[in-house]
Amino acid sequence: MSVTQLPATERRRILEGFYTAYANRDVDGMMQWVTDDIVEDISGIGFVRGAAEERAFLSGLFSSFPDLDTRLVQIVIDDHGASVEWSRRGTFEGTPFQGLRANGRAFQLRGGAFFEFSDGRIRRITGYYDTAAFARDIGLLPKDNSLSEGTLKRLFNLRTIFRRSLKRLRRAG
């Protein structure tokens, strides 16, 4: 069934089912709503392709953040697909996530996602959230306006000046 053939009420039902399973950290429940060739493009993380990768990603996410709480804020249905706004919070106290060891830090953020459908299931998810805020909350980046943030900015600016100077020297030499 193509995107335009799937009624808006059905797309809403699918997303509500998907996010109900998400709120319950139910990977099997989530997987029943996606196609075998699901593609998820997540800002700050990259692409997750296929049902096996999606299952592994979701299982890892829930394992890394055992208290993960995802709430559906709103669903917007249009002629081609749907979008959602969600809120999420959790504590990084489980297994490593994306190469980072758990440190017990909590996070809270909002995000959104765009959905495409095929054959009555979710075929593609493109998700966005404030990756810098997430990184700050879990301690990967320094807090806004902190001494550490100021130091990082100064180091970045020094590196930029150094690279530009080096480039000019190479051109002159």
Automatic annotation (TrEMBL):
Residues 16-124 form the SnoaL-like domain. It comes from the Bacteria. GO terms for biological process: polyketide metabolic process. Gene3D superfamilies: 3.10.450.50. It holds the Pfam family SnoaL_2. Transmembrane segments: none annotated. InterPro entries: Cyclase_SnoaL-like (IPR009959), NTF2-like_dom_sf (IPR032710), SnoaL-like (IPR037401). PANTHER family: ESTER CYCLASE (PTHR38436:SF1), POLYKETIDE CYCLASE SNOAL-LIKE DOMAIN (PTHR38436). This is SnoaL-like domain-containing protein.
